[in-house]
Specification:
Layout (H helix, E strand, L loop, with lengths): L5 E10 L2 E11 L3 E6 L6 H8 L7 E6 L2 E3 L4 H6 L2 E4 L11 H7 L6 H15 L14 H14 L4 E5 L7 H16 L3 E5 L3 H7 L2 E6 L2 E7 L5 H9 L1 H6 L1 E3 L8 E4 L2 E4 L15 E10 L2 E9 L3 E5 L6 H8 L7 E5 L4 E4 L3 H5 L6 H9 L13 H14 L16 H13 L5 E5 L7 H16 L3 E5 L3 H7 L2 E6 L2 E4 L7 H8 L8
Length: 507
């Protein structure tokens, strides 16, 4: 075997009371896609951030090309040919997409930079609105821009942290094909993703982290899904799940309780809503990108909304959750609506608040408290502790600031907080984004349980498996309008075709 392009050895990193990495190792070889797996809070993102120069290790060594180096900044990493596509966006909001992409192409003329951008978009199939300011982009276009920015620098080592979380299935497939091409060119690729089927399909080698330690590294061909689950979550958890591998890696599935989870954490819908009371309705609603939207959501129903990101889903979520008023039309919604937003950093949490304070943000919306009512701090602290335990949030205490949690654990806090509201309707935008397979299965089970109890649920997701697996009825958003999905069309192929622009608009 050739020598690794990059070697991380015995990496330690602590954030306050949280030991994010404890003696972690990682070797990246030329010609390989290396999948990095682990439960929420296992240290995956921190390890990749060390490699990308965003985080300095407390101890341990980094070798690039056989030489010991110190990566004090992303510039140091780039100078050594290491490119990082970060889980949290690093673009400059006030600049256009084109100008953000040019930042990585200093030294090239205007025409050369423009030609490089166009060529990279054509090669990857990732299209972005070049003249639009980043501040006006949805999360999908921001992710596409991050990926393009990294690829434009032609890295020898490409590190990607959850790159497909907001991409369409077609874009994700195109990205994986590109990663395979880059590996065939002799580059090294490291990939973090919580969708097991994605990682298993594209990776040559796998590393599993658990509580900051490297607990396994092996060729993909030599490990089963059960072994991976056991290493990620423990033997006890692996013994409680059924692993389906009869047809090979592409059919890997995990069944936890009554919820069947594929590699992308989809489940079989258990909700049986039909003819429930209308809880919310939109009539000819216009609001920013929305164009005459008609929608009814009933008690006990999981209403799935699919679509390519940027077609009005977020505006729909804001209207349904009461955070945006229609400019035209009528929106009848409950007084209390639980809301899981698409961007946990901008809309879900205050990074410098601790868990109890972030829980208080939601409880203050409840009628029994309200903005003028003093909430007992002990009650809030107990509720935060209950959420931390129930959703297995990896944090030393409820006094831990949100910024010190992993992305997946931040999502667990938001979901637990919103479910605690006991509201008659829940609007969820990509609720399992960033969650490991077991946590996603748990959240799906909770959504179905709420529906069985009569809660109206609007599930807005770019994950087709999630929508098709959970929803009683499915609609597609395209160009700000709702498109009907018939029973015959409720397949990946059928819904995918509607996402590309076909179908009958609801009236």
């Amino acid at each position: 075997m050739s020598q690794p392009l990059v070697r991380l050895r015995s990496i330690d990193r602590r954030f306050g009371l949280i030991q994010a990495l404890s003696g972690a190792d990682l070797d990246l070889y030329p010609g390989e896609v290396h999948g990095v797996l682990g439960a929420n809070g296992a240290g995956k993102s921190t390890l990749l951030n060390v490699l990308g120069g965003l985080v300095s290790p407390d101890s341990g060594g980094i070798e690039v090309g056989g030489a010991l180096v110190k990566l004090r900044s992303p510039r140091d990493a780039w100078s050594l040919g290491i490119g990082l596509v970060h889980q949290h966006f690093t673009l400059v909001p006030a600049l256009s997409v084109r100008d953000n992409l040019r930042l990585g192409l200093r030294g090239r003329s205007f025409s050369e930079a423009g030609a490089a951008v166009e060529a990279t978009m054509a090669r990857t199939g990732l299209r972005v609105p070049l003249e639009t300011n980043v501040s006006e982009l949805g999360v999908g276009d921001r992710q596409r821009t991050e990926i393009l920015k990294a690829l434009l620098r032609d890295p020898q080592v490409l590190v990607l942290d959850e790159p497909t979380a907001v991409l369409t299935p077609e874009e994700a497939d195109g990205l994986f094909a590109l990663l395979r091409d880059l590996a065939r060119e002799g580059r090294a690729v490291a990939l973090v993703a919580h969708k097991l089927d994605e990682v298993l399909a594209v990776s040559d080698r796998l590393t599993v982290l658990r509580t900051g330690r490297t607990v396994m590294t092996a060729p993909r061909s030599q490990v089963s899904v059960r072994q991976l689950v056991a290493k990620m979550l423990g033997d006890g958890v692996a013994d409680e799940v059924a692993i389906g591998e009869q047809a090979g890696p592409s059919s890997d599935a995990v069944v936890a309780g009554n919820a069947q989870v594929s590699g992308s954490a989809s489940v079989t819908s258990l909700s049986t809503a039909s003819g429930g009371t209308v809880v919310a309705s939109l009539v000819a609603v216009h609001a920013d990108s929305l164009k005459g939207v008609q929608l009814e959501v009933r008690a006990g129903e999981v209403r799935g909304i699919a679509g390519v990101e940027g077609n009005g889903q977020h505006d729909l979520a804001l209207v349904l959750s009461g955070r945006k008023s229609p400019s035209l039309g009528r929106a009848d919604i409950p007084k209390e609506v639980a809301f899981i937003p698409q961007d946990r950093h901008a809309e879900g949490l205050v990074a410098d608040f601790d868990l109890t304070e972030n829980v208080a943000l939601a409880l203050s919306r409840m009628e029994e408290f309200g903005p003028s009512v003093m909430m007992p701090w002990g009650v809030l602290r107990d509720e935060a502790e209950r959420i931390r335990a129930r959703f297995e949030v990896v944090a030393p205490s409820t006094e831990t600031r949100a910024r010190f949690l992993s992305g997946g654990n931040q999502q667990r806090v938001i979901i637990g907080r919103e479910l605690a509201l006991n509201a008659p309707m829940l609007v969820a935008e990509n609720p399992t984004r960033g969650l490991d397979v077991a946590a996603a299965a748990y959240v799906h089970g909770e959504l179905l349980k709420l529906a069985a109890e009569g809660v109206a649920i609007v599930l807005i997701s770019t994950d087709l498996d999630e929508v098709l697996g959970l929803a009683d009825s499915v609609s597609v958003m395209t160009k700000g309008r709702i498109v009907e999905v018939s029973e015959a069309q409720k397949t990946r192929e059928g819904v995918g075709a509607l996402m590309l622009g076909g179908g009958k608009v609801s009236k």
